[in-house]
Design goal:
alpha+beta, 4 helices, 124 residues
């Protein structure tokens, strides 16, 4: 899959998990082979938590240029180990080990948004 298709599928799963679950499950099945292991620590995602991360970074003053990076991690710790850029926007879709899907987005190192997402994961 190319990067654009991966981004569209990840965003579809995050936005439509509750309303269009069957189609979202199909998208997840297509995404799993593209991300077999954590990009930071190398642990396999088999049955464990999986976080798909889209990093969007816009540069330039007059001519705006947007760069996208797509990767997966096994935990929020690995996401922090990857490093969060202050000017980047992060869209995160998590498929938890119990089958629930959670999504969030935040700018840079937004501690409040990250903490709320971590609390949502703990509650799930």
């Amino acid at each position: 899959m190319d990067k654009e298709s991966l981004i569209k599928d990840i965003l579809f799963v995050g936005k439509n998990w509750e309303s269009r679950r069957e189609k979202a499950k199909q998208k997840i099945a297509n995404l799993l082979p593209a991300f077999p292991a954590c990009s930071i620590c190398g642990n396999a995602h088999a049955g464990a938590n999986l976080f798909w991360v889209i990093e969007e970074e816009t540069t330039g003053l007059l001519v705006k240029k947007t760069r996208y990076d797509v990767f997966s991690v096994c935990s929020l710790k690995c996401l922090f180990d990857h490093g969060l850029k202050q000017k980047a926007y992060y869209s995160v879709v998590a498929r938890l080990a119990n089958g629930k899907v959670l999504a969030t987005g935040f700018q840079g190192r937004n501690a409040v948004a990250i903490n709320e997402f971590a609390l949502d994961i703990a509650k799930a």
